Amino acid sequence: MSSAPSPAPARRRRRRAIAFGAGIVAVGVVAAPLAASAHGHQPPGHPSTQDDTLRSLAASSGLRIGAAINTDKLGTDDAYTTIAADQFSTVSPENVMKWDTIEPTQGTYNFAPADKLVAFAQQNGQLVRGHTLVWHNQLPSWLTAEAASLSADQLRAILKKHIQTEVSHFKGKIWQWDVVNEAFNDDGTPRDDIWSQKLGDGYIADAFRWAHQADPKAKLFYNDYNIEYTGAKSDAVYAMVKKLQAQGVPIDGVGFQDHLDTQYGTPNLQETMQKFADLGLDTAVTEADVRTTLPVTAVEQTAQNSMWSQSLAACLLVKRCISFTIWGIDDGSSWVPSTFPGEGAALLWDDQYQPKAQFSVLQQTLELAAGAPHRTR
Ligand code: XIL
Predict the structure, then answer these.
(1) Whole-prediction pTM value?
(2) Which residues are paired to 254 by β-bridges?
């Protein structure tokens, strides 16, 4: 497990995080981006100085807390939009920066939905995690249809153009980019997709280099699931990252998706994140949710609460863990029920936008982290 850093580096790190936000957020909310007055209502009876939103509580520990956003709901669903603005200090596009949305037909770009999210983030003093440039899923059909007939050079040129066009479009507006997503199988072997089949493993280094050329200030991440657990996959990603560093490839961080399920138990996230942090990398929890079988029993609810608080505590205890992002807002629009039949209840708000016990658990974890006499970050 990680050693406990002294309080002094914690204070330094907090200033850096806020200064960085000021550097790339375009509107005038940066002087106090997380202040109570700028965001959200105070529950009746609260003193005006107290702000118990997740974003404000997280700011006390120098952490950005985020959510994946369904841009169709922004501005059309008031309850959803209010929670998105009030509770979070970073946002991720749940789908609209993926290749199938960005370039639905070859050479025709559809940036509008993602631009809407970036504008929302700037209005609300939030940073943006770009997600994702290279993946095996949600590719446009024109690409999957022709991939088999393309030469390696042709496919490489298409990938380069995609990365350079998308990263350039959002230049200066993205805090962290998930450059490559899910390139490994659980047994640690490379995923057998169009990228590895045609380009070998060299496409990963290329992707980071092209993204860096297009936006040198964005933090570039490799992102994956199940690397929260020690084991073959985490080891393979670790070996790849070390190799990239040795080759001088511009990689800044590793994202831990953290899609958890009560039936598989709590991962050793702190240990695995610290290992990557010790390579000199930032880390982030990028897609947290905790699903369970429905209907939720009291025991499963207890397990969910514990898994949420342990995930967040792991990030708080790893000094280089710079953001904690939750994959959605409410159970009504979570990806879980359609992906894992019979499971759900994975998020912090129910389908009526009522905060669940899991929300209070995260609030309490952040409150304890901020108020602890012997802070560890
Ligand atoms: C999911 C979205 O939440 C769904 O709306 C979509 O239909 C499929 O993709 N890992 C990732 C995310 O990196 O992009 C995925 O998001 C969830 C798993």
Answers:
(1) 0.88
(2) 222, 283
Q: How many angstroms separate the CA atoms of 97 and 71, rounded?
A: 11
Given the residues 182, 228, 300, 343, select the one marked as catalytic: 182
Query: Quick one: which H or E segment has residue 91?
Result: strand 90-93
Distance CA 240, CA 204 (A): 9
From the CA of 328, give the closest atom in ligand 1.
Answer: 3
Kindly report, residue by residue over 256-273, the tens digit of the pLDDT. Answer: 999 999 999 999 999 999
Q: What letter does residue 355 receive in the DSSP assignment?
A: B
User: How many Å is the Cα radius of gyration of the chain?
Assistant: 20
Distance CA 157, CA 282 (A): 29
Q: Among the atoms of ligand 1, which is closest to the Cα of residue 131?
A: 14
Give the pLDDT of residue 197.
96
Low-confidence ranges of the chain (pLDDT < 70): 1-50, 371-377
Q: List the Cα angle 221/247/174 in 5-degree steps.
A: 25
Q: Of the candidates 360, 350, 336, 305, which has an alpha carbon nearest to the alpha carbon of residue 79?
A: 350
Topology of the domain covering 62-368:
TIM Barrel (3.20.20)
Q: Which of 184, 261, 327, 338 to mutate to test the pocket of ligand 1 (most atoms within 8 A of CB)?
A: 327
CB 182 within 8 A of CB 98: no
Does residue 181 have its Cβ closer than 6 Å to ligand 1? yes
Å from CA of 147 to ligand 1 middle:
22
Q: Which of 94, 287, 300, 343 is catalytic?
A: 287
* Residue 287 annotated to the active site: yes
Q: Is 367 designated active site? A: no
